[in-house]
Structures are given as C-alpha cells and as structure tokens.
Amino acid sequence: MPLQGNFLSSLLARTAARKLHPTLGFLVQRSYSSEPVDLSFDVYPGESPTKPPLVILHGLFGSKQNWRGVSKALERTNPRKIYAIDARNHGDSPHTQVHDSTSMSADVRHFLEMREQPIAACLGHSMGGRTMMHFARENPKMVERLIVADISPIALPRSTKEMKLIFDAMLNLAIPSTLSMSEGRKLARNHLMEELDTGTVDFIMLNLRKNSETGEFSWACNAEVLSQFTGRIDEYLSKGDQLPPYTGPTTFICGSRSPYMKEEHWPQILEIFPNAEIHWLDAGHLVHFERPHEFLQLVTEFLNRT
C-alpha cells in the first residue's frame, strides 16, 4: 500500500490565499512564489535500503494517482523505494503562478534533499519527462539513471492553438455548487465534449473535484496558470541549450502511434543524451496505459541493470 506524503503540501494548500474566480465560481489557490514547493507524493516502500529510489512524475493534467498501478507493479519487480509525486499545479501539490521545467526541476531536487536522498532513478512521462530530462542535465550527480516516456526534448506536436482550445473549454466551465458530483460531472463532460475529443475529455475529467463543505467545484490542476505555461513550452529547447548533456544511462519508451517522438530526432537526442537507447511500443501517447506489460518489462529490466 502506498503511504501518502500530503502532510506538508496539504497544510500549504489549506493556508494558501484562496480567491473566487470571477467567471467560473471555482476556488483557485494562489501562491506567487518561484521558490521550490513541497510536493504531494505516494511512497511504495522497497526492500533494499542501498538502492537509489525511483521517482515518478506524471504528464500534463495527470497526477500520482495515474501511476498507482505501475508503481504497485514495479514494487513487486524491483527492490527500490518508489515515490510517485504530483507536480506543482497538479493533483494535491500546491498551486503557484510559476510553471516551467526549471521550477519543476527545482521541486524534484528539493523533494530529494528533504528526504536526504542524494541520488535517484527518475522516470517522467510527457511534461514529467521533460522535467526529468531538465533535472538530469542540471543535476547529473543526483540522477542514477533516467527513463523518459513518450516525449522528445526536440519538439512537440500540439500547437499552441490546440492547447488553448483545451484550456478555454476548462476555464469557461461553470458548475453550480448545488449540483451533486455525478450531476456536475455530467454537465462538465457535456460541455467539454462540444470542443474536445473523447480521450482528452476522459483524461481531463480525472481532475474535477467538489468541496464536501462548500459544494464548490474546481479543477485539481491549476488550469488558469497551465494555460499560460503551454504557450512557453517551446522555450524548453532554448533553455536546455544552456545545460550540458546528461551522460548517465537513459532509456526512452515511446509509442509508435504517438506524435510526441519522431524517429528523425534521434541523432539530435543522442547529442543531448549520449548514453541513451530507445524502445518503440505499439501504442499512442499513454504507453504505460496502452502497453502496461511491455512497459513494465522495459522499466524493470532497465532499473535492475547493473
């Protein structure tokens, strides 16, 4: 069973200034600090105290809960302690007005330092993959090995216009607090389906929350700030140019039907991660959901490799 590490992040969330959004009726947590934040996490205890832990970071709109099945399975196949963490502005972690790979990398470093973990294996999917790539290049001595799930450090397929469509649909949603959770979910789903495809809606709907005391609906992810962040996603490469290559063991696990990694980028990627390998699974962007058995096999073999 995972042990929840929400004690500090929950306190921060409760004490953060809260402001009623003028159009949504959503309660939005506010924190303007660019300092590292204390991330919410689940921990899966490992059998070996000598092996560096594995830290798992989800993608955009995701949370540590999305990785619960993978974490439990990995707990059975390798001796490492596993931390599944919520990125800032996601899940149960604090909401801030700053969201980029640099700040999220600082959060990961802070997370490890607070637990006196000088080194860890890092696994990131999509947005989390870009964060972990940045973290590895910025802090190579803290990364034993790196696993990147279906994301390229070179380019992204989704245009700013497409991402704006997603966030506009989320931010233009108003749900009366008098509705039940099931009624609110139905209203939200119908609203989002007017603009978005079923797969995107299903994933976004995992973020809908209802306050048991006030009845207010909100998004677990900080959609207002994330909508601004997506316009700066392409800055990742230019910022990354200032960082040295990460020469530690690295594996990319990508979906052959996903647009998030292109084969023609591999020579450039090897310049950044010269000790990297790549595996293609018959899947889309959510490789760990669509091909869980093969994904777990690849991750387990890589983690147990000497």
Automatic annotation (TrEMBL):
Enzyme class: hydrolase
Stored Gene3D superfamilies: alpha/beta hydrolase
InterPro entries: AB_hydrolase_1 (IPR000073), AB_hydrolase_fold (IPR029058)
The protein's Enzyme Commission number: 3.1.1.116
Recorded catalytic activity of this chain's protein: a 1,3-diacyl-sn-glycerol + H2O = a 1-acyl-sn-glycerol + a fatty acid + H(+); 1-octadecanoyl-2-(9Z-octadecenoyl)-sn-glycerol + H2O = 2-(9Z-octadecenoyl)-glycerol + octadecanoate + H(+); 1,2-didecanoylglycerol + H2O = decanoylglycerol + decanoate + H(+); 1-octadecanoyl-2-(5Z,8Z,11Z,14Z-eicosatetraenoyl)-sn-glycerol + H2O = 2-(5Z,8Z,11Z,14Z-eicosatetraenoyl)-glycerol + octadecanoate + H(+)
The entry's keywords: Hydrolase
GO cellular component, one term: mitochondrion
MF GO annotations: carboxylic ester hydrolase activity
Residues annotated as domain AB hydrolase-1: 52-292
Domain of life: Eukaryota
Pfam families, alphabetized: Abhydrolase_1
Family: Belongs to the AB hydrolase superfamily.
Protein name (database record): sn-1-specific diacylglycerol lipase ABHD11
Gene symbol of the encoding locus: Dana\GF19711
